[in-house]
Design goal:
- The complex is a heterodimer of chains A (about 200) and B (about 350).
- Chain A is built from 3 helices and 13 strands.
- With about 200 residues, chain A is of the alpha+beta class.
- Chain B is of the alpha/beta class.
- Chain B has one domain.
- Chain B is built from 9 helices and 7 strands.
- In chain B, helix 1 packs across helix 6 and helix 6 packs across helix 8.
- The radius of gyration of chain B is 27 Å and the shape is elongated.
- The N and C termini of chain B lie far apart (about 65 Å).
- Classes of the chains: A alpha+beta (about 200), B alpha/beta (about 350).
């Protein structure tokens, strides 16, 4: 049995990466590797992002903004059974993993391909989009099963470095509703305090 | 004079043959004792056409539970279409194919996405002669769906009308004697199943693979009368099962229509989405935030729409599932009763045959 990720997870804001700090780090690394930077170092100039080529700088900003948006949800709701894992996120699609016969199955469409699988105890989801854009999520649960770390990495063929953010979550028991609700087609959502009979 | 005698002799042979044929046909038809063109039709619950590999369901947009419901629901629309024609005898929806039925319709749902319905239909008579074996596809246009809904008809009525027309066309290929033969083979096959010692050899395989009557029971054969009585009893139960299918149809028709409309919209969205995916869809420079956000959002909305479809499927099942379960339970009870009685009748008839003839093995 792989790691159990199921349950409701709430973002732990006391931990995790600061987007601006990570961006600064990426820009610093870019500045260290760009040809202009090598030239600047030789002339005794250091410590500025000014030497990062503008297109690399813009790409880094773009990846940072997208990574920040993707990792914004406060709550993750994970449903898991033998064949499927679904990570529901507010205002975003549910990350989905299907395993049939022990093999992970890719979700393919005209818009992109979603691959996933287990890397040891970590669940890894990789979304491949056109133009070389990739979004990877790596889910790790602590040994006591109470905490989860999600490392999200966004990369693009136009950016020399990926942008990676870590987020931490704590498990919580979602409050039980006083109502039993089911979806129907003709009556939309039907709720009752007792069992529902249609 | 001699010439006219020769002519008379030459003409008399075919004339006698024609007359005898007419008498024989009339006898056969009279023995059947009903309008043989109005054959009884059994429409078996359709094969849902769900791939065995569950990993393909998502790719092919197949919701197994909904297909199961459709497999119970759609045959009834064909039944209603045939009833409307007033060209057939008793038309029943049956849970299992019955090879001894005078005319048996079996079908597989190849595609059903709210926009296109494709059915593979096979119709064979009791002698094994294939009447129809082909695929039927129906596409709904907005006007057509609206018009048919107002008239209380299926959105795919044209598809069912086409099947019905093909059945009628196939019937016109057969003369009265052939039709009477189907009725006889049907009853003899049933008799052979129920009392093989008495009727096991009444039908034989023809070289073309069909079944033909080998011999007929004597007029007033008490054993054959009993078989006919048992079959009419079984038909009472089959009619009760058919009533259950009719009730299900009445109960879920309106919800199914809503489901079908949702599905149709979803398919239209998918087509629009695919068109959008082919265009770049973004004015942003490659690698810019606008461009990559556009790529991500396209995927996001595609997946959210897909999820929405799953939710709709669940909603449909929430509403219709309990009724289908209740119907299936009742049908199972009726079938279990038939099976139990069938065994009993088989035992009694074989026993009677032994007592009456001393010939049973």
């Amino acid at each position: 049995m792989p790691t159990d990720l199921s349950g409701s997870w709430e973002r732990d804001y006391s931990r995790g990466d600061d987007v601006n700090a990570v961006l600064a780090d990426v820009l610093y690394r870019l500045s260290r590797t760009s040809p202009d930077a090598r030239h600047a170092r030789q002339s005794g100039y250091s410590g500025s992002t000014a030497v990062v080529p503008p297109q690399h700088r813009e790409s880094a900003y773009a990846l940072a903004r997208l990574a920040e948006e993707i990792t914004r949800p406060q709550v993750l709701t994970v449903s898991q059974n033998e064949h499927e894992i679904s990570v529901a996120r507010k205002d975003d699609y549910a990350i989905f993993c299907a395993f049939y016969g022990g093999m992970a199955k890719a979700t393919e469409s005209a818009y992109g391909t979603e691959l996933c699988g287990w890397d040891g105890d970590q669940l890894v989801s990789n979304l491949i989009l056109p133009d070389g854009l990739q979004v990877t999520h790596r889910f790790t649960v602590s040994q006591d099963g109470r905490k989860m770390r999600v490392v999200t990495s966004v990369s693009s063929s136009t950016a020399p470095l990926p942008f990676t953010l870590s987020r931490f979550y704590m498990k919580f028991a979602a409050p039980k509703s006083d109502f039993n609700c089911i979806e129907t087609l003709s009556m939309k959502r039907v709720c009752s305090t007792t069992d529902i009979e249609l | 004079m001699t010439r006219s005698k020769d002519l008379l002799r030459a003409l008399s042979v075919p004339l006698i043959f024609v007359l005898l044929s007419c008498i024989f046909v009339q006898q056969a038809v009279a023995e059947v004792g009903r309008d043989v063109s109005k054959l009884d039709v059994s429409i078996a619950v359709f094969d849902p056409g769900v791939p065995a590999d569950p990993s393909l369901h998502r790719d092919l947009d197949v919701f197994p539970r909904i297909r199961k419901i459709e497999s119970l629901f759609l045959p009834f629309i064909l039944r209603e279409t045939l009833v409307e024609m007033n060209e057939w005898g008793a038309i029943r929806v049956v849970p299992e194919p019955d090879a001894a039925a005078e005319l048996l319709v079996t079908g597989t749902i190849v595609r059903s996405d709210g926009d296109i319905l494709e059915l593979w239909i096979r119709v064979a008579d009791a002698s094994g002669r294939i009447w129809v074996e082909k695929s039927y596809a129906g596409i709904v246009s907005d006007d057509y769906a609206h018009k048919n809904a107002e008239a209380g008809m299926s959105s795919y009525q044209a598809l069912y009308d086409e099947i019905a027309a093909d059945l009628l066309a196939a019937r016109t290929q057969l003369d009265e004697m052939a039709l009477a033969g189907i009725v006889e083979v049907s009853l003899l096959r049933y008799a052979g199943e129920l009392a093989p010692s008495a009727f096991g050899d009444y039908v034989t395989n023809a070289p073309d693979g069909t079944l033909t009557v080998n011999r007929l029971p004597a007029k007033g054969d008490p054993m054959f009368d009993r078989i006919a009585l048992v079959r009419s009893t079984e038909y009472v139960i089959t009619d009760a099962v058919d009533t259950k299918f009719r009730e299900l149809h009445t109960e879920i028709a309106s919800v199914y229509d809503v489901w079908r409309k949702y599905r149709r919209k979803s398919v239209q969205y998918q087509v629009e989405d695919a068109r959008r995916a082919q265009d770049n869809g973004s004015d942003g420079e490659r690698g810019s935030y606008e461009a990559i956000k556009n790529r991500y959002d396209n995927y996001k909305w595609h997946r959210i729409t897909e999820r929405e479809q799953d939710t709709l499927a669940v909603a449909f099942n929430n509403e219709v599932g309990p009724r289908v379960d209740a119907m299936e339970l009742r049908v199972e009870e009726l079938l279990a009763w038939v099976e139990q009685k069938h065994d009993e009748w088989h035992r009694i008839l074989e026993g009677l045959f032994e007592v009456e003839t001393g010939l049973a093995q």
